[in-house]
Amino acid sequence: MNHSTKQTKKTYLVGGAVRDKLLGHPYHEQDWVVVGATPAEMESEGFLLVGKDFPVFLHPETKEEYALARAERKVAKGYRGFEISADPSITLEEDLRRRDLTINAIAEDEDGTLFDPYNGVADIEQRILRHVSEAFIEDPVRVLRLARFYARYAPYGFTIAEETKALVKTMIANGELEALTPERVFQELNKALSEAEPQQFFYALQEVGALKILFPEVDALFGVPQTAQYHPEIDSGIHTMMALEIIAKMTDDLPTRFAVLCHDFGKAITPQSEWPSHKMHEIRGVPLVEEFCRRLKVPNHYRDIALKVTEHHLLMHQAFELRPKTLLKLLKNLDAIRKPDNLRRFVDACKADARGRLHFTDRPYPQREYLLAIREAASHIDVQSVIKDIDKKAIPEAIEKAQLQAIQSYIREYRENTLKD
To answer: For binding CTP, which residues are annotated in this chain's numbering (predicted)?
Structure first.
């Protein structure tokens, strides 16, 4: 295309705001593209340059992002291997062409007129996720974004176009996914976990053949049977997806959702001769979760709760049978006295595990409130009176003894009230 002439400067609303407005889906940000402008012109109007790789500006008042129209050319492997050109002759159609999906390649001018060169409106109406062009194949991040959009819009009935699935399979065959950095994979995973139906992200990756490459620990769970008495859904992968669905309805907390994703990794390495039983899967799972977190460079607070839930979720299910000493040991292991959020994350994840089973989704889980109450009892001892007039070295033991007595007292009271009921 001839880029010798500068166009008249014009601003368009693009991307998510246009898409979500058409869908009736809530949106909170607006992004704009400016055609026919130079960086100098934008700065002269008070816009603040913030983009490092290409010209993106913040509006002086609204602080919304305004990007100059740009085109991309693939020059090397991976999602960073692009040469970007942004000059006043780049057209809106060229800018929209570099976008991943047709539903993201719609623009709206200031009069509300839609500019839709790649039939994104029709794909929204038909509920189809479809790539804009063959250039989709050039950026492996788009596979993760495709799955993420599927997770977001699955409630609207969206499906992935067959030709888009075929493109992803070509990308996998060409080794494009290997160019993804761990940080970027986790970044997209984290965004996917924030969706209303995060389990759909993994189903989408499974459907296009990318799950076993990007998240082999999750993929390995599918096809592994469990004991029907406790898991009527049978399949370990389906159980994990059901537990994810449950936790997404319970809490927006992402480390908790991440812990639920990881909690049963150990079932994938149970010897087949032991199926459908999975004795010690909680212990076997710990090194798998450690490696998963190391590989994806997962933040420590995500990793820590995932490891605790993996190792201790069976203990939590048996909370009513546990001795006071064991309960106190569990609280200490979670550092729950000092950090109540640790316990809240733990009990929520365990509740999702217990309910993420066929026909169990509404089953009561009183263990959650029970352990929270035990933590309250243990944390409200009068420390000053406990340590008064005793030797410094004896303080930890004295505090532990008082905590144990508080737990015993609570359990007695709980059992008496339960018998009355």
So the answer is: 16, 19, 99, 145, 148
